[in-house]
Amino acid sequence: MPSVPAEVPKSAAGDRTAVRAALLGWYDAHRRTLVWRAGPGAAPPDPYRVWLSEIMLQQTTTAHATPYFEAFTRRWPTVSDLAAAEDADVMAAWAGLGYYARARNLLACARAVARDHGGVFPDTEAGLLALPGVGAYTAAAVAAIAFGRPANVVDGNVERVTARLFAVETPLPAAKPELKRLAGSLVTDERPGDWAQALMDLGATVCRPGRPLCERCPLTAWCAAFQSGRPERYPLKTKKADRPHRTGMAWVLRDDQGRIGLVRRPDKGLLGGMLGLPTSDWAAAPVETAPPVPANWRETGSVEHVFTHFALTLQVRAGQGGGDFIWLPEAEALASLPTVFRKALERGLAG
DNA sequence: GATTCGTGGGC
DNA sequence: TGCCCAAGAAT
Questions:
Q1: Same structural domain for residues A195 and A304?
Q2: Is the distance between the Cβ of A194 and the closest atom of strand C smaller than 7 Å?
Q3: Which of A96, A184, A220, A275 could form a disulfide with A152 if both were Cys (CB 3.0 to 4.6 A apart)?
Q4: H, E, C per residue of chain A
Q5: Residues 295-324 of A with CB under 7 A from strand B
Q6: In the structure, how far is the CA atom of residue A309 from the C1' atom of nucleotide B3, in angstroms?
Q7: Does one domain contain both A270 and A229?
Q8: Is any atom of strand C within 7 angstroms of residue A205's beta carbon?
């Protein structure tokens, strides 16, 4: 009598059609409601809104991006409106969202679409990829979601879901090509935008980094990580380098009308293109630096701020005076500054 | 392939 | 508290 195992483990590789049906069915029942999304079964969403949301969502949570998306689409309803905006207005509107190169590229992209494409987004992955600030992920996402192209949309969620589904033992980031190939093996021309968003919704709400909610997952029957008993082990990652610490000085200068003296930072580098307080260089050890203008400077304490690749302590000094600065009222300055300078300004005003 | 580039929330 | 991480892109 032939011995047949009672339960033969299924695999996603051998059952692609069933995996797709299970996840798309789950998506139809459990998809997230997000402000940039069209409703279930609705016509494909406006490419401008898809693109804008994708740029804002790069390395950014949906909760953080949502109010910015609402503000941008209210103020600049079309890509042509955005293309015609002033640089300073767009940078100020982006303040607090982080990764400010995105805002500079956002404007460059809007202007390229307006100037080179008649205000209409390219509808192919290759055409989108040629735009400023649009990389492999964003090109694929816009092509799939806005234009129904069967693109292989691979973000951090898709990498995690795929690593678990196939129990990939190679650690990130070395595993990226393998994960992309495996994710691509599940893409078809059926509902490409929904497929991409289904994978991302699953990754965000069920197949989470820390404690995956496998009891709610529609794919456990095919999931090698689930079958291993330790799904949270995936994806494996190589250890990150320690975060160094830097220190520096920031000056809060007020004129006789109570306005704040600001500088425009150079386009390249940290906080590029944004307004900022005048500061010293930031180094591992304190560097004695002359203040930007003579004044009766007083110590007002310090603020801590953590960037992606270093932590910063900023000593804040406040004083009264004038000079060659960009002078903004307090409220406008607070609203236009990146967070590290908003914190320093608040410290200087309180002291 | 490795670095640079923000911020805020969760645990 | 410190670490992880979030719909990555550019260099």
A1: no
A2: no
A3: A184
A4: CCCCCCCCCCCCCCCHHHHHHHHHHHHHHHCCCCCCCCCCCCCCCCHHHHHHHHHHHCCCCHHHHHHHHHHHHHHCCCHHHHHCCCHHHHHHHHCCCCCCHHHHHHHHHHHHHHHHCCCCCCCCHHHHHCCCCCCHHHHHHHHHHHHCCCCCCCCHHHHHHHHHHCCCCCCECCCHHHHHHHHHCCCCCCCHHHHHHHHHHHHHHCCCCCCCCHHHCCCHHHCHHHHHCCHHHCCCECCCCCCCEEEEEEEEEECCCCCEEEEECCCCCCCCCCEECCECCCECCCCCCCCCCCCCCEEEEEEEEECCCCEEEEEEEEEECCCCCEEECHHHHHHHCCHHHHHHHHHHHHC
A5: 305-309
A6: 9
A7: no
A8: no
